[in-house]
Amino acid sequence: MPQIHRRPVNRVKNDCAWLLEHRANVTSQIGQDGILARIFSLIGNGQKFCVEFGAWDGKYLSNTWNLIANENWGGVLIEGDPLKFQALTTTHPYARVKTINRFVHWDGEDALDNILARHEALPDIDLMSIDVDGNDWHIWKSVKKYRPRVVLIEFNPSIPNDVFFVQDPNRRLNHGNSLLAMIDLGKEKGYSLVCANCWDAFFVADELYGAFNIPDNSIDAMYFYPETQTSLFQGYDGTLFTAGNRRLLWRNMAFSFDAIQLVPPHQRHFAG
Q1: Could you tell me if 61 and 193 lie in one domain?
Q2: CB neighbours (10 Å) of residue 172?
Q3: Contact 101, 115 (CB under 8 A)
Q4: Tens digits of residue pLDDT in 173-199
Q5: pTM of structure
Q6: Are 136 and 252 members of one domain?
């Protein structure tokens, strides 16, 4: 096998990605609770109103449970699965929290704008947490009537920083979208990236960005998790090589050099 490796990443303190130093979990999975606490300490809590979907049972891996249960926030929590929704209503029996049993879509009756309007959500949303394992980009793009101060949205961490990828808008697909695509959409909607955790991006409305003193919020300054990303390149003879991650992350399965080849060994020769 040839020698293949990626340039080591310098993980020392980064003046741009400094919010990562505040990672801490109450119920969140990868430190979102701590990052959100620091963000709101800088921009203020506003109306203390959040929106999250799919909310599961309202506590498991939740990005809003700490705010609601410990900081007295209100909000709208949306979960499509009936069993999870039953647990959600038990977790959050508060009058200040509205729980909704729907699957959020990007158009039609179940577009997020329409769901929130039907249930009289506050117009001043402080936090919107979007994690639907696929159509996140399309749902955020569809939001026109509401402008949350902070948007926390999932992206696919296996996609390299220089790739713009948006999956087809399809409920049956779970491909995810690239961080670059999220950043471009954020710019279009008037949002600036302030933190990129392993698979979650934190955006604030442009007018709030100055509170963070981030000298450079470009994707390469903010995101550096090469162990999750896979690069593919070609030999002159048609051999395919990979660098970086060589596992299917969500199946915990390694893929071999031979398995990715399109041209059999006896046909691999330089055709130039």
Answers
A1: yes
A2: 6
A3: no
A4: 999 999 999 999 999 999 999 999 999
A5: 0.91
A6: no
